[in-house]
Amino acid sequence: MPRALLIVLDSVGIGGAEDAAAYGDAGADTVGHIAEACAAGRGDQAGLRRGPLHLPHMTALGLGLAAEASTGRMPPNLAPQGTLKGAWGYGVETSKGKDTPSGHWEIAGVPVAFDWGYFPNTIPTFPEELTAALIERGNLRGILGDKHASGTVVIDEFGAEHLRTGKPIFYTSVDSVLQIAAHEETFGLQRLYDLCQIGRELCDPYKIGRVIARPFVGSPESGFKRTGNRKDFATPPPADTILDTLDTAGRSIVTVGKIGDIFAHRRTGREVKPNGNDACLSAAIEALKDLPDGGFVFANLVDFDSEFGHRRDIPGYAAALEAFDRRIPEIEAALKDGDLVIITADHGNDPSWQGSDHTREHVPILSFGSGLKLGAIGRRESFADIGASVLAHLGVSHKGMGAPWLLALCHGRACPGRPGCGSVAFLASGSPARGR
Ligand SMILES: O=P(O)(O)O[C@H]1O[C@H](CO)[C@@H](O)[C@H]1O
Ligand SMILES: [Mn+2]
Ligand SMILES: [Mn+2]
């Protein structure tokens, strides 16, 4: 029985969203603008990286072709030179919003049809009764911030006052979030998590997607730094996702990084949550080693978004893409015959864009594995096609949103595709055909 690995490169969008203007993002293009900046020497940083964006493995999987199909422009240095090694295309987000839960839930078969709640870009941003309830139930002296902000800037601004007063820092963004930053040692990590749990309950009537704990360390003298103990308190998806479907079918599930949080820990299998892209990718590769037949590994790599996209750091983002790309051979080496890998993203976060928020974009869909039919899977009208394709590959029937694309489930590199070999190819139209 085949297995599947789904990797979400958080915020690695490829531009071109037709509805981007409605989000203030017309023209945003995360990968395209990083590639252009690198080609123009604006991606150089001493000791980190230099030169054109170098992503040989993702290029061979069709990243440049997917980007070109999405925007009409081939990003510099991403045109494939040799043989293509993957099936490539791009996904269009149908959900409302451009945040992590919308993107991930849609990937997993549940597009967001309702409107999230958002806090206005005013000071204060939070409704008085919400703040009052948080202060009372959280036993607080008050709150700091109370505005739209970037998380690293807001701890620089209020960190010292937080240490003096013990008041936590509350902020939000254009996303449906309430974020609470507090010093991990003086305020206490568990106390921050408990406060966020209270916040989660109080935010439900406002339809807020996530309450996020943002612990940090440091001092006014040394500066403040966020730690890896961020924790997202998400509202659960409104319908069954592929995780529910696979769990019901008795399949083994491993979720890596933020996935557990994003799906509110519902049917998220064995959760592994190390800190950072590299450690999360290692954990995903490690999980493949003892993943039984029919199993599913679902990983999120968040550094692209949180460390570089929101920070508008082009060299950092480029270096992170290159670091991921260098490890694709390790993923290939961990695969068994019949395994499927899909690499995608949940939204954009163009580091060349104004502000510090996500950007509405198409996402790349790159897949590979033995027996997989190579070539274009085209434009997928919903991210839900990704989850549907995972289910199709794993042979689990699916009644929800999304349609699987061209997959050739030919279990074995040497499969001659003889009649009756049992393999199934899903054609782009969605009609299954025998053999390959
Ligand atoms: O600036 P930081 O704290 O990284 O916040 C960002 O992280 C949130 C979740 O992705 C986004 O809504 C954005 O506000
Ligand atoms: Mn995200
Ligand atoms: Mn983000």
What is the compact description of this entry?
This protein folds into 2 domains: 308 residues, Alkaline Phosphatase, subunit A, CATH 3.40.720.10; 106 residues, 2-Layer Sandwich (Alpha-Beta Plaits), CATH 3.30.70.1250.
CATH class of the largest domain: Alpha Beta
**Count of distinct strands:** 17
Q: What is the typical, i.e. mean, pLDDT?
A: 93
Strand content: 15-25%
Summed up, the domain count is: 2
Q: Termini, distance in Å?
A: 18 Å
Rg from alpha-carbon coordinates: 22 Å
- The helix-and-strand class reads alpha/beta
Helix content: 25-40%
Q: Which parts are unreliable, with pLDDT below 50 for 5 consecutive residues or more?
A: 408-436
Shape: globular
CATH architecture group name of the largest domain: 3-Layer(aba) Sandwich
Query: What is the CATH topology of the largest domain?
Result: Alkaline Phosphatase, subunit A
Q: Please give the order of strands in the largest beta sheet.
A: 10-9-11-1-12-13-2-14
Q: How can the largest sheet be summarized?
A: 8 strands, mixed
Layout of strands and helices, then pairs:
Elements: E1 4-9, H1 30-39, H2 56-61, H3 63-71, E2 87-91, H4 100-107, H5 128-137, E3 144-148, H6 151-165, E4 169-172, E5 177-183, H7 184-203, E6 210-219, E7 223-226, E8 231-234, H8 242-248, E9 253-256, H9 259-262, E10 270-272, H10 277-289, E11 296-301, H11 303-309, H12 314-326, H13 328-333, E12 340-344, E13 363-368, E14 375-380, H14 384-394, E15 407-409, E16 424-426, E17 432-434
Parallel strand pairs: 1-11, 1-12, 2-14, 3-4, 5-6, 9-10, 9-11
Antiparallel strand pairs: 2-13, 4-5, 6-7, 6-8, 12-13, 15-16, 16-17
Helix pairs in contact: 1-12, 5-7, 11-12
The site of one manganese (II) ion has 6 residues, from loops.
